[in-house]
């Protein structure tokens, strides 16, 4: 619980009976990413559970959300063992403030390809999983633990760690209602072809900034995990983190050589045009 001016504390006190543990901070986390980073550091050092899930309180979980995630996660543990970082994510239904359906599938609404979760090079550029749908094991919690300020978002960082050092799987069905309203910090805005091309024409600076943010994240990832990376992984993150310093032709060749792609044709075109 960050310092809050609403009734959050009173609501939590109502539930804090041994079932819910309230963790109260005296200083703000500064962002959703900072808040989840704090929570995971706390869980790593103070909790003994083997499985974890993130919760955004704007959302409404559908029946069986945790059961579905746990079933998939335990099947992965039977294949890979429980010492390997493992993560499961799912689709979501996009709804408005009154829980009226905006889109039955967040993935299709945003034109996301869940399969990219297994390609760390593409995942370094674009996240395809929502943290509010995550179920993961302690091995991933301990591998992630502290999320650096250079990460683009906590869920993006967790996906990257999981796919490089462990395994990710997904449930191709909504497990929650993802609420959209004017107070959302980050949210779904749709990726229709017309709006995508308008972004290419009118928001080139924003696309370039997003690419640079991914480069900064790659540098932070390299600094955090250099000793644990294979030679090809280390070389990729080293080159990607310094792309802004390289020539126009080198940047294009880098994308082609590593077969970088994003979840849609317009996004991939924007990457190759503006990187």
Structure description:
The protein is globular, with a radius of gyration of 19 Å. The mean pLDDT is 89. The chain has 12 helices and 6 strands. Helix 9 (204-225) packs antiparallel against helix 10 (231-241). With 275 residues, the protein is an alpha+beta fold. Strands 1, 2, 3, 4, 5 and 6 form a 6-stranded mixed β-sheet that branches. 47% of the residues lie in helices and 12% in strands. Strand 3 and strand 4 (101-103) form a beta hairpin. It has helices at 8-15, 32-46, 65-80, 106-109, 120-123, 138-144, 154-165, 193-202, 204-225, 231-241, 248-257, 265-274, and strands at 51-53, 60-61, 86-95, 101-103, 135-137, 167-179.
Features:
275 residues, alpha+beta, globular
- The stretches of 5 or more residues where confidence is low (pLDDT under 50) are none
Number of distinct beta strands: 6
Beta-strand residue fraction: 5-15%
**What's the helical proportion of residues?**
40-55%
Shape: globular
| Separate helix tally | 12
Task: Produce the secondary structure layout.
Elements (H helix, E strand, L loop, with lengths): L7 H8 L16 H15 L4 E3 L6 E2 L3 H16 L5 E10 L5 E3 L2 H4 L10 H4 L11 E3 H7 L9 H12 L1 E13 L13 H10 L1 H22 L5 H11 L6 H10 L7 H10 L1
Parallel strand pairs: 3-6
Antiparallel strand pairs: 1-5, 2-6, 3-4, 3-5
Helix pairs in contact: 2-6, 8-9, 9-10
Give a summary of the structure in a few sentences.
This protein has 275 residues and is of the alpha+beta class. It has helices at 8-15, 32-46, 65-80, 106-109, 120-123, 138-144, 154-165, 193-202, 204-225, 231-241, 248-257, 265-274; strands spanning 51-53, 60-61, 86-95, 101-103, 135-137, 167-179.
């Amino acid at each position: 619980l960050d310092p809050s001016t609403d009734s959050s504390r009173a609501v939590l006190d109502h539930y804090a009976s041994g079932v819910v543990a309230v963790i109260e901070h005296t200083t703000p986390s500064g962002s959703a990413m900072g808040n989840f980073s704090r929570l995971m550091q706390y869980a790593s050092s103070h909790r003994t559970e083997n499985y974890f899930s993130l919760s955004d309180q704007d959302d409404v979980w559908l029946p069986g959300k945790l059961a579905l995630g746990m079933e998939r996660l335990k099947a992965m543990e039977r294949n890979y063992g429980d010492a390997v970082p493992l993560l499961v994510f799912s689709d979501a239904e996009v709804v408005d403030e009154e829980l009226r359906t905006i889109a039955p599938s967040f993935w299709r609404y945003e034109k996301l390809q869940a399969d990219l979760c297994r390609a760390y090079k593409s995942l370094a550029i674009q996240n395809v999983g929502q943290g509010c749908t995550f179920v993961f094991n302690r091995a991933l919690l301990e591998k992630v633990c502290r999320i650096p300020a250079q990460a683009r978002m906590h869920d993006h960082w967790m996906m990257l760690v999981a796919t490089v050092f462990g395994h990710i799987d997904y449930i191709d069905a909504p497990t929650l209602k993802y609420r959209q309203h004017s107070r959302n910090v980050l949210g779904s805005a749709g990726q229709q072809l017309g709006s995508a091309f308008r972004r290419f024409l009118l928001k080139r600076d924003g696309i370039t900034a997003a690419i640079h943010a991914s480069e900064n994240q790659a540098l932070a990832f390299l600094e955090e995990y250099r000793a644990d990376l294979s030679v090809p992984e280390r070389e990729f993150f080293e080159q990607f983190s310094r792309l802004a310093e390289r020539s126009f032709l080198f940047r294009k060749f880098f994308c082609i050589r590593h077969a970088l792609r994003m979840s849609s044709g317009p996004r991939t075109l924007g990457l190759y045009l503006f990187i």
